[in-house]
Amino acid sequence: MSTATMTDDVRKSGSSLRLPEGKWTRAGLMIGLIVLLLSVLRTISGANDMDSSGAISAALALAVPIGLAALGGLWSERAGIVNIGLEGMMILGTWGAAFGTIKGGVVVGIIAGILGGVLGGALHALATVTFGVDHIVSGVAINIIGFGLAKYLAASVFGKMDGGGETNSPALDDVWSFSVPGVGALHDLERKHWFLISDIAGILGGLGTNLSLLTVLAVVLVVGSIYVLWRTPFGLRLRSCGENPEAAETLGVNVIAYKFVAVLISGALAGLAGAFLAMVAGNGYVEGQTGGRGYIGLAAMIFGNWMPLGLAAGALLFGYTDAIQLRQGGPTLHALLLAISVTLLLVGLWQIIRNKKIVSGVIGLVLGAALLYYYFVNDSVPTQFTSMTPYLTTLIVMAVASQRLRMPAADGAIYRKGQAN
Predict the structure, then answer these.
(1) What are the DSSP calls for 364-415, one per residue?
(2) Which residues contact 190 (CB under 8 A, 6 or more apart)?
(3) pLDDT digits (tens, 9 = 90+) for 373-414
(4) pTM for this prediction
(5) Sign of the CA dihedral running 369, 375, 376, 382
(6) Higher-confidence residue: 259 or 327?
(7) C-beta neighbour count of 2 within 10 angstroms
């Protein structure tokens, strides 16, 4: 491949950042339609917790660790390294954050959590970049190592501390949090349950209430990743390693170094996600507290088509489904079934009429009709099913999103220095 071709490919891969005005308009309209739909469903069903400030605040808190893990996966895979070891890196981050906070306070805890993830990232980079181990095999090994090492360290360290145990740490200091000034007025509007106005107030109130330092940092990291990866020479070179490493090498890019750095950054972000779980979502390290969020983060990254804003939207979606199943999920999920069933019916018709895909269209129609029938014959969703919501959402979203995905061209490929010669 010529130098000009490689440069064109890299430019095309980043062109989606420069959204035309029409796309920003469509994005705004989509958000407006979602808010309107939630308002209609809340009014029809009476499920006022659907978009309450409490639900939105919980959704944001649950979305942050998923989003940070997804962002870590993005950095790694944009450089061509598949990282399914995010779960293990998050686990190391939870232990590191708890230990660092106990020994040195909140700031030390955040740094220690990041370093825990970096340790997992370094092992993954050593295996995949240096020794050419299959990325999936290495990622699975990192998950196993992370779980086993954290379990051993927790038993050895926390088990000897007052208030700790073999599976949990003592309680940690609170991370600084704040609420946006004037948010109380939004809560007053929300309690009036007016159509659309109260819904907007609830959403904005939830986004501005009890924000932690790490939540703000997560938003900054998403924006910063957009700038670094798509607006700097460093980001261009890093993404070229994931698109065509051979061509990048002919241009003088140290592909091995860029891949290694990308995986270390990936581990750092996953470790920060673990720190959030231990220091904000919880009150210390607890064995098993990641709960598969590393894998859901990967799903959010793929849902977002390997783009920062897309993965942030995916993380919010998964965080929302997790939040509503924790907050009287039965009635809320029952109301959402109406929207899901109608959406499936419309998608099925679209597939048959416009895309001429009979099989997928019929499947959509059947599922939509089944859910619509269930909605009318039942008043709520059993609690046994509400706990499945985040994982079921992951499967459904991935099935739908798979139709439009474009992963980095060399993602997962084993690269050896000099193989372009």
Answers:
(1) HHHHHHHHHHHHHH-SS--HHHHTTHHHHHHHHHHHHHGGG----TTTT---
(2) 52, 53, 198, 201, 202, 205
(3) 988 888 878 777 777 777 777 677 666 666 678 899 999 999
(4) 0.89
(5) positive
(6) 259
(7) 9
Residues, the chain: 421
Amino acid, res. 364 = G
Predicted local confidence at residue 329, as pLDDT? 67
Separation of alpha carbons 162 and 11, rounded Å: 56
Cβ atoms of 241 and 79 within 8 Å: the answer is yes
Q: What is the pLDDT of residues 74-87, one digit of tens each?
A: 999 999 999 999 99
Of residues 92 and 6, more confidently modeled:
92
Contact 203, 56 (CB under 8 A): yes
Residue 202 is inside which H or E element, if any?
Answer: helix 197-207
How far is the CA of 262 from the CAs of 33, 184, 225, in angstroms?
37, 42, 12
Cα 305 to chain center, whole Å? 12
Helix (H, G, I), strand (E, B) or coil at 209: coil
What is the C-alpha to C-alpha distance for residues 266 and 353, in angstroms, rounded to an integer? Answer: 43
Strands 177-178 and 211-212: antiparallel
